[in-house]
């Protein structure tokens, strides 16, 4: 996949288990192998609680997997500690979901944007104002905003500030956890455009989490579909509508409400509910809700197998 | 059936929604869309007389079946709420006492409106309602606490509660925005069946234009506490002439739509 | 006047009153005209208020007014010492426990559990009993128990924001731990802690007065309100002014500081943000 | 109301209304509020305070008792003989006396009771050997009903010693619990004891000396004098001893519903001066005594509860107070001058004088009784005026005693009965260099010599002369900080008649005290 | 709470108790004064050094501190808290006789406190910013601003001395003598608790489910009594458990004021008498009582709150 592109990060067999009550374990991520390429976007979709955030937090070392390795340019970041880890943070930044929760309410925008630079002593205190203006303008905000507090801004503006902060260190990778889901659609659109523009300009790799397949396919180069801690399908971003193979991916596609859809047709949806991550069934995790469930599905867990070079699926039907 | 006439709603004297009018017929589904803070919740809460802290209708009138709601006594409100007009919320689970079982909530609710019904009968009625909302194993659910149910289930229980007395009007405040896409589809389907089965009118608040478009007969677009645009669904979606509506529609991502890369 | 200015005005009023009390204590010698609170003329014993002694005199002919005014010094110094001590220690430990979690948290909180299982007065009595009765030991004793409250509070406030995105963001952008503690955790807990501290001044004063009343706090001839009440107790009926004025002094000061704390909460409450 | 001096009948009894407290079962009950001494024990052998308790509560009695002129009268002994050398004493035990458990009190049981003192009381503060030497041979003759005591040293008057509460006769054969259930011959019996609360006493059914007026007595401990006054006023108790807040006492005296009796003071309130500490310095000691205005304190500060005097023996006793001279009359200026002259000056300007380079801070231990702590605080205030620091340590009487025994003080409040055995010998022992009771470390050859003479002198006039000289030695040596002489009191409500305080403060609950009707 | 959690909780309690015992031991160990000397001098005379030395030997006071602590602890575990210097009685016996009066006092004042604070707290919350709220808050303000011993003395002056209804000295511990100490204790506590009740009810009234119930037409009285009130009990129970600590401490002052024969009074006199074994015993006991009560509170909390009870 993306032969011409440089692979900068690779996760190998990443698994995260949380101890739960009654001696049970919650497997939030189960043997995840994904790759990030320079200047490309990896979209991660799945239902709430399937482990997307847990996985993405590994990349920025806010948490550590219980098993597996995460290699950034060959170095395992799960093994890093202290100053080494801190230095490594320059390369991987993150934008959070809730634009109101990701800023210290007591700090001015200027200080927020310059904080990463100050942390690595890249600028002096006196340069703050100019630098903040530069980055604000980069995310299409007026430079005067440097003097504001986060609560004096709208959600969309805040999310721009968050992006400005993330790119300040000129990272190679930015992780975005549902970075637009708290925003209105019109704002969401401008943010996505901004992100895409910046990505092109600075050649950043992006890991983007979303619920919305429609949104993700609009700018992701590669999409990973996650279900109950497992990656069930990895496919190229372009033609997800046509080539999605996994029944879960298809169910997701069918559940999308779209203004261009046929309003007379009954909406299709997968029956049932996502099981609790504590009770992941043996075999295929999707078996309970799958219309094409076979006998083998309840016995054996399907492995990701390549259909084409860029399209992998974990389903016994393929 | 419901007519909102030129209503202005203020919080602490600050008008938040101004000159809002709307008229709804039996069996219609209306959607209120618009960006957050535009006053959608405020409007439908005003209909049920449940404006939060300091909210007041300062101008205009709200008529339900010809009667003004604004002068209602608390007795009259009680008779109306949960009977002729019901409401479901973004998270119906949070709208139930977390320390009571679903059953108790049902029983309390039913016995509020039917004075002479025994607990047992109320309980059975609850089970019946749950099963009508295609929630199998009603008895089990009745014995559960809200936090023990998944989001989708809780929302369905909320709908079952709201539909107990087959209200003429159902107000829904973003009933699906906390749900996953697959569950959202299930709930939307179910709400549409309500209209078909019971002839319930629905006012649906959402910021998902897709859902609004799919469900409703009539769409009202709000902006800054005012109606920006309104019209029948097909007109609004297919041939909008308001620029704001157009930009909203253009912003909705869709499969096979714009790709930036 | 809208609500906010009203709140501010009340706050300023209480601040002014508190300042007046503190100034009275500081300038006690001026206020009392240089009368020594610990000396008196034996023959002037138990004079009723009036006649050159505004609040009367006690059994040793000491001027009650002077003693009440000087009492503010003792009480305020002691109460402030307790509050400042527990504020610093409790906040620091609470932040550390909340931020680092794990073993640090366990150790600090188990110690706190231990101290909190000592009812405040019980430990105070024990300390006084063992180290000897004095106002200093009373301060130590009360502090030993009270810091847990601050530690718990600080910890819970830290835990509330510990998993907030903006804390994660700050870590991701490469902030160092001391910086996190000082720039993120501390400002977050400070307002609530300050409110609590302000409100607690009154409570501490009452506790210290209680200890002195029992004989485990200030010792004679220190002018201290609790002690004065204890001394006045024998003359409750014959010379009620011995109990009335120190009692009133405690009441007024506690009320002022309580209200100051309350109005500080009104204007500082983080919930309003 | 009425108040009367020692001994004379309280006229209040006559006009008091006919209100007799009756308990639930119809019996008569007296409620009595008093201070708790000696941690509530009533064993005469272990501690002086407990011996006093035993007698004050009407539980134990001695062979002799003191009348209100401090003369010895027979009690459990009806007659006695003494040999010319004052070494062989034969006591005839009163017939028909029974212990409260119904056993007869025989000569043998009296002898056993004395003997027990020397075994059980060996390490306690009762110090029985102060009243009767250890070497004395005690023999009983049950047939004759006599107890014979042969001593090695001559006792001027052993009967006085035997009247002292420590020498109370207890039933050695049957007492199980000496601490709270000593069996004696008195009108009341300790029935129930609750720590810190008090005793329930019941009438001794076998009492030998007439009828016991009350069926039961609720004895309640009240530490604080104002509590006593309030309890009395509220009707919670009928009778209390020693209210030491002047204002309360005056108010009660003025109220016709209460009877106050006050005894002539034979008690001396004073502070021991610890010679082992900084006050070993005589100049300092003198200055201290001279700087303290005891007269005003007695008359004003404690409102006349004390009669002023400068000697360790009360002025109203026949020990020549008038002939004594006081070189250290209150005079602060002179005191200051004396200190200055002795080089005890305030060189660092903090208002406190230094001795050997250290600020003088006297540790004054005291306890909350008979206004002693007030004296301590007054002293503190007065000494501050001449630049001497005092740290007052107010504790309970137990701890104070402990601190005193440990020598952990400079000044130590005390209030002693000066003529506990009808004679000050035992009291004066406090300053005798070789005494075990000398807790202040005072030593003076002259005093010791006089004391040793006193111990063997039998002639009354000569004894008085010796005692006078000894007093003067103590005064001249600035050995004691004397406050004054305490006047004990007993206060009763109109439900109680004849509640008098006795000069010898050993007899509180007597059969004299009766319901008013 | 599962058995395992209960087990963990109990182990934690033991650890904390262990710590407390060590702390009390250290405190008394470091205290000035020699216990043997104190023990002897309590009887009035100073024993000879040989006697003291022998007694130290016998009591094991010559041994290193940790061994002494170990000995003391083992004795404690066997129920032997030593012998009081001042009372010459086993500490346990003294504590046992005083326990019930103090518990009685604490219980009565708690009942009084609940009777007063719950209705007033609720009224105050329901009629927030109405005159009744202001009045209640005013009174509670007074309650938290006056020293409780002062209140006690004033009550005593009025009810005992002026009116003569109740005894001044509560030493016999019957019901009559219990009233004023309990009222005094309850006074300040009720004030505090009324405020907490008010806050808890207000908190609960702001919950979404109240809106939900209103939207369903449920009567306000039902919302208040059947939903809000029971739910607000949960935080109140916890506060109640914590206030027990203050109560147990507060009893000491009130017991002294009224000469009530409780643990607090005993402790105060133990301290004036430097009666270390008794102080140690007292502190340990209070700690145990306090922890047991809070364990019960936690258990009841867990029992009452289904969110904790039924969590899967
Ligand atoms: N610290 C934790 N302790 C225990 N369980 C956790 C923890 N963090 C996450 N989980 C569990 O792991 C699972 C995956 O959580 P995660 O937040 O990664 O989901 P998500 O896919 O990001 O969901 P959403 O779309 O709602 O953000 C969930 O079931 C969650 O409850
Ligand atoms: N209790 C209140 N007091 C004061 N202002 C309020 C209150 N509730 C809502 N508002 C204000 O009224 C406006 C409309 O709020 P409303 O909740 O109706 O918006 P909405 O369209 O439902 O938004 P959302 O999509 O975020 O739910 C907002 O600006 C909000 O700040
Ligand atoms: Mg997530
Ligand atoms: Mg809304």
Summarize it.
The complex is a heteropentamer of chains A (318), B (261), C (273), D (517) and E (312). Chain A has 318 residues and is an alpha/beta fold. Chain A has helices at residues 52-59, 82-88, 109-119, 128-138, 155-168, 185-202, 213-217, 240-243, 247-254; strands spanning 7-19, 25-32, 35-37, 41-45, 67-72, 75-76, 92-95, 173-177, 205-210, 222-227, 230-236, 305-308, 311-313.
Describe the structure.
The complex is a heteropentamer of chains A (318), B (261), C (273), D (517) and E (312). By secondary structure, chain B is α/β, with parallel strands linked by helices. Chain B has ten helices and ten strands. Chain D contains 15 helices and 24 strands. Chain D has helices at 12-15, 48-56, 107-120, 158-162, 178-181, 225-234, 246-254, 282-291, 294-301, 332-341, 372-385, 397-405, 425-428, 445-456, 460-476, and strands spanning 2-5, 29-34, 64-66, 72-74, 77-82, 88-93, 137-141, 146-150, 188-194, 198-203, 216-221, 239-241, 258-262, 267-273, 306-308, 354-355, 358-359, 361-367, 389-395, 411-417, 480-486, 489-493, 496-497, 514-515. In chain D, the strands form six sheets. An eight-stranded mixed β-sheet of chain D has the order 1-13-22-12-2-11-10-9, with helices on one face. In chain D, helix 8 runs antiparallel to helix 10. The model of chain D is unreliable at 1-24 (pLDDT under 50). Chain E has two domains: 3-77, no CATH class; 98-311, MetI-like fold (Orthogonal Bundle). Residues 42-46 of chain E have low confidence and may be disordered. Chain E has helices at 3-30, 35-41, 49-59, 65-77, 91-126, 131-145, 148-162, 175-205, 208-215, 220-257, 263-272, 276-304, 306-309. Chains in contact: A-B, A-C, B-E, C-D, C-E, D-E. At the C-E interface, helix 4, helix 5, helix 8, helix 9 and helix 10 of C face helix 1, helix 6, helix 7, helix 10 and helix 11 of E. Residues 18, 26, 28, 46, 48-54, 277 of chain A line the site of one adenosine-5'-triphosphate.
Topology:
The complex is a heteropentamer of chains A (318), B (261), C (273), D (517) and E (312).
Chain A lengths: L6 E13 L5 E8 L2 E3 L3 E5 L6 H8 L7 E6 L2 E2 L5 H7 L3 E4 L13 H11 L8 H11 L16 H14 L4 E5 L7 H18 L2 E6 L2 H5 L4 E6 L2 E7 L3 H4 L3 H8 L50 E4 L2 E3 L5
Helix pairs in contact in A: 3-4, 3-5, 5-6
Chain B lengths: L1 E10 L2 E11 L4 E6 L5 H8 L7 E10 L2 E2 L5 H7 L4 E4 L13 H12 L5 H14 L5 H5 L8 H13 L5 E5 L7 H18 L2 E5 L3 H7 L2 E6 L2 E7 H6 L4 H9 L10
Parallel strand pairs in B: 3-8, 3-9, 6-7, 7-8
Antiparallel strand pairs in B: 1-2, 1-4, 4-5, 9-10
Helix pairs in contact in B: 3-4, 4-6, 6-7
Chain E lengths: L2 H28 L4 H7 L7 H11 L5 H13 L13 H36 L4 H15 L2 H15 L12 H31 L2 H8 L4 H38 L5 H10 L3 H29 L1 H4 L3
Bound molecules: adenosine-5'-triphosphate (ATP) (2 copies) and magnesium ion (2 copies).
The site of one magnesium ion (MG) has 2 residues of chain B, from α1.
